[in-house]
Design brief:
The protein is α/β, with parallel strands linked by helices. The protein contains 18 helices and 12 strands. It has a 5-stranded parallel β-sheet with strand order 2-1-3-6-7, with helices on both faces. A 5-stranded antiparallel β-sheet has the order 9-8-12-11-10, with helices on both faces. The radius of gyration is 35 Å and the shape is flat. The relative contact order is 0.05.
């Protein structure tokens, strides 16, 4: 995407033009300056270049650059900063009233500061354009409302500030079964389901004339069943009294959509359950193969979630963290049995193969799109704070946060558990070990958080 800012500089005096051009060149490469010396050249360049901003000397050889200012018929033409060699309050006021964004008296300081003035002018112009866009949208919206009230399939209604129906369009008979005559004069709250009524009333009372609310609720059909409505409501201001005179509402039947959403949610929940069961199956298969660490995965997963909650992760993030913890040793499925199940210490060649299990995990799991957010733990849980870990030798905060605190949990469980080649260590010795290695192997702040979680578990 080209984010270059084209500036048309209209200046007939070379020293001034060169000073301004140099200022832009020194400040920001985004700015591209095109210089002309007259209004005639400027008009040609405005068509060919479509400049983002015009910086123009007020008095030029063939006229005054005031001629280029926006007018009432074209309020969003190219923004202009006017320059003059001497201050004149009348000209300044006239220029700003006519649409100039700024009026600058020439001096070495002001010309060298022109990049900053240009930035500010472009921001002001963007805000002005946005306001104009909103005003146009409002007019179009009002025209659309009038058309909808007469012909729309949506139910258009007008209510008093107390919720009594003043007017309702013929579509109400299609949506709710009532004729307009049956509804006019009744309270709109009477047909709202009791589960939604308090919410709708509170929202209704809080409606301001400068805001539009869209809500979904259940409404009573004439034949006795409830349908789901989606209503967009806006308060209308009485300009004479400066108070809300009525509420205008457009409502549509979204019952089928709600049914589809519910079915989709059920399907989504089922899919999530299938994902979870699949992961648990993989973990179980690994446990059956590597019996010396059986139960390790479930323990570290539960403790990891407790630490993650302490750190303030959201429920959605916890789902991915849980998956990453469950799958952290998945790469060991690719390690040969003679290495994985070796009763004694591994030699250097065997360790070299064992250290590849995070990479194997990534290679196995990365083709599965729903597991992408969970891969930081399987890939990085053996990285160490001082950069001595593997597989990539990441250091400090270059290691993903979830992998940094999982590494502490993983080591804690390993040292607190019996293994065929050693007995478990007393918890206090493990605590001492983590504190000793804090700032070396582990993130020191996360060690403190982890130990606070462990301590709370004892209570």
């Amino acid at each position: 995407m080209d984010d270059r800012i084209n500036i048309l500089l209209i200046e007939d005096e070379d020293p001034h033009a060169e000073l301004i051009q140099r200022a832009f060149e020194d400040q920001d490469a985004r700015f591209k300056i095109f210089r002309v010396r007259s209004l005639t050249e400027a008009r040609t360049q405005m068509v060919e270049r479509e400049p983002t901003l015009i910086i123009a000397d007020w008095r030029l050889p063939d006229g005054e650059s005031m001629e280029l200012l926006p007018n009432h018929h074209d309020p969003l033409s190219t923004p202009i900063i006017l320059m003059t060699s001497y201050g004149n309050e009348r000209i300044a006021v006239e220029a700003l009233k006519s649409g100039a964004l700024d009026y600058v008296v020439k001096s070495p300081e002001s010309m060298l500061d022109m990049p900053h003035l240009a930035e500010r002018a472009i921001e002001q112009w963007a805000a002005r354009a946005e306001r104009a866009k909103m005003q146009k949208a409002l007019l179009e919206s009002e025209a659309q409302f009038r058309l909808l009230a007469e012909n729309a399939s949506d139910m258009i209604s007008r209510l008093t500030t107390e919720g009594r129906v003043i007017y309702v369009s013929p579509a109400c008979e299609t949506i709710l079964g009532y004729t307009p005559e049956e509804m006019v004069g009744t309270s709109s709250f009477d047909i709202v389901h009791e589960d939604d009524r308090a919410f709708v009333k509170n929202l209704f009372r809080g409606n301001r004339y400068d805001a539009t609310y869209t809500v979904s609720y259940q409404a009573l059909h004439k034949n006795g069943h409830y349908v789901w409505l989606e209503s967009s409501a806006k308060a209308i201001l009485d300009r004479k009294t400066n108070s809300i005179s009525e509420i205008q509402i457009a409502s549509r039947d979204i019952t089928e959509r709600k049914k589809s959403e519910k079915a989709l949610q059920v399907a989504h929940d089922g899919l999530q359950e299938a994902y979870q069961r699949t992961i648990e199956g993989w973990v179980r298969a690994l446990d059956l193969r590597d019996r010396e660490t059986e139960g390790h995965t479930q323990r570290v997963t539960e403790l990891t979630i407790k630490v993650a909650r302490k750190l303030g992760f959201s429920e959605e993030e916890l789902t991915h963290i849980r998956r990453g913890a469950l799958l952290h040793d998945m790469g060991k499925m690719a390690i040969p049995d003679e290495i994985l199940q070796k009763p004694g210490p591994l030699n250097e060649t065997e360790w070299e193969k064992m250290r590849r299990h995070p990479i194997y995990a990534y290679e196995m799991l990365s083709p599965i799109s729903y597991l992408h957010p969970a891969l930081e733990i399987p890939l990085c849980h053996h990285e160490r704070w001082d950069g001595s870990g593997y597989p990539r030798g990441l250091k400090g905060e270059d290691i993903p946060l979830v992998a940094r605190f999982f590494a502490i949990v993983d080591v804690w469980d390993a040292l607190c558990s019996d293994r065929p080649y050693r007995k478990k260590m007393p918890q206090q010795e493990v605590v001492n070990y983590l504190r000793e290695k804090s700032g070396i192997l582990f993130d020191p702040k996360l060690v403190d958080v982890f130990l606070s979680v462990v301590e709370s578990e004892k209570k």
